[in-house]
Each structure stands twice: as structure tokens, then as C-alpha cells.
Amino acid sequence: MNTDLTTESPDAETSDSDTPALVFDDLSMTFPDGTHALDHVSFSVSRGEFVTVVGPSGCGKSTLLRIASGLEQNTGGLCQVDHDSIGYVFQDATLFPWRTVRRNVELLAELHGLDLKGLSGKVDESLELVNLLEHQDKYPKQLSGGMRMRASLARSLVLQPDVFLFDEPFGALDEISRERLNDELLSLFKAKNFAGLFITHSIAEAVFLSTRVLVMSARPGRIIADYEVPFEYPRRHDIRYLPEFAELSGQISHDLRGAHP
Ligand SMILES: Nc1ncnc2c1ncn2[C@@H]1O[C@H](COP(=O)(O)OP(=O)(O)OP(=O)(O)O)[C@@H](O)[C@H]1O
């Protein structure tokens, strides 16, 4: 991926931090079988903010993202977001094996009924941003796990979303690929200035990427801690070795241990 994005940023949008792009207001969720997944969750994410939620397994993190994406309907409170302006990257890249990388990247635009000829420049740009332009004619089975995640990112980038939802996108990758994709994701975030909502089980990943880290309790998930992350962007990969990074990670780890049932 082009690592100069943060300095180039030719089409970086200006931040409108007064108007959050995604709002959860006193949101609760109880499934029809009675499972109480989320309890009075309130927070918002503006463009230029990257918020990560960590919490014990089964506390309701994916449910929160599914509600934001419109796949589930909350049973209490409010979720406000423009559903036409959301990008998603989930743990499974969900590429069609019979389509090339480029045809996969065109998929969402196609489903939105957009004119593909008119979008060819956007598809090129998205492929370029994730460093897959030269692999655009390959099929998913010819790609590494990291490349598949990049293709999944590019597919959403074509639509230029205001809000990007990430559900453990790099959880299945090895440590080094994951750190590299973290660097690349931050370059993309600074270039496109979307509102990011990210879920991970890795505290280091949460602190490295985010402007803010929220800790959830065990189910039903509630926000039990809220940390501003003090590091400036662009962030070098070696901020992970700073004492401040270790201290913040330690606090989050302490909260998480307390959150486990
Ligand atoms: N459709 C559903 N019907 C009933 N219960 C559900 C449904 N979907 C999820 N749940 C339950 O809701 C709770 C929250 O699930 P969710 O997948 O949001 O957790 P999570 O925090 O993302 O977990 P993990 O970290 O393990 O991925 C779990 O107890 C899960 O079993």
C-alpha cells in the first residue's frame, strides 16, 4: 500500500466533528429468544475519529456493529447513521471466488446500481490505495490472507463511506501481517478521514489504531471504561514500545480482566 498517503491526502475530506456520523443513544438489544446482548450503550463517532470497542467474548460487540450496519434492529434506544454511507470489513473477507480482485472490488458499486464505466477511476484509486492495482486480475485463491482483507477494504472504499465498520478484520492474520495492515489502515484513515468503529480482542491493536478505546462489560454489554488515546497521527509502528503505550494498555487490560464474568 502507498505509505505516503498521509502526506499526499489529495482528496482528504475536511472533518465535521460537530456532527457525529454514527450515534448510539441509550441503545439496548434483546434477541427474540430472550438473550440480553446490549444494555444502555451510548457513544458517538465523528469523521476523523477512530473508536475501538474491546470486551469479553460474547459481550455484544458484533451485535453493536450489526445494528449499525442495519443487519439487526435494536430493541431499545437509538442508532443513528446514514446506511447509504457505511463501509464494512469483517473477519471473513467474503470475496466471490469466481470474480477477479477488480470484479470483486466493483461488486458493491454494482449492487448499488452505479454506472461501472463512470466508476472505473474510483475502482483504480481504491485498488491503488490498498496496493492491489497490480494484482487486480488475480482470483481470491491466488491472494494471501492480508491481500484478501485489502480487497475487502477496497470494495467498500469505492463507495467513499463516511463510516467504516471493522469486525476483527485482522484476527486471523499473523502478528507481522497484522501490524503492517494496522499501519496501512491508519494511512487510509488519515487520507479518507472516515468515522471508524473497530472491534478487536487485541489491546495493542486497539491502542495503536484508535483515537478512543471503549471497554465493554460481560453480557449484557455496557460501556464500563472510555479512554482517549493521546498519540498524534501519523503513528509510527514503534510507539508500541513507549512507556505511555504500555501504561494505557495495562489500564485497559486491568479493566478487561474485571469485565470477565
Ligand atoms: N441472533 C441471535 N439470537 C440470539 N442470541 C444471539 C444472536 N446473535 C448473537 N446472540 C448472542 O448475543 C451475545 C452477543 O453476541 P456477539 O456476537 O455480539 O458477541 P461478541 O462480543 O461479538 O463476541 P466475540 O468477541 O466472541 O465475537 C452472545 O451471547 C450471542 O450468543
TrEMBL record:
Domain called ABC transporter: residue spans? 22-243
**Organism superkingdom:** Bacteria
- Gene3D superfamilies per the record? P-loop containing nucleotide triphosphate hydrolases
What InterPro entries would the database entry show?
AAA+_ATPase (IPR003593), ABC_transporter-like_ATP-bd (IPR003439), ABC_transporter-like_CS (IPR017871), ABC_transporter_ATP-bind (IPR050166), P-loop_NTPase (IPR027417)
Which ranges does the record mark as transmembrane?
Answer: none
Q: Which UniProt keywords apply?
A: ATP-binding, Nucleotide-binding, Transport
Q: Which GO terms describe its molecular function?
A: ATP binding; ATP hydrolysis activity
UniProt keyword annotation of Kinase present: no
Protein name as it appears in the record: Putative ABC transporter ATP-binding protein
Annotated source species: Ilumatobacter coccineus (strain NBRC 103263 / KCTC 29153 / YM16-304)
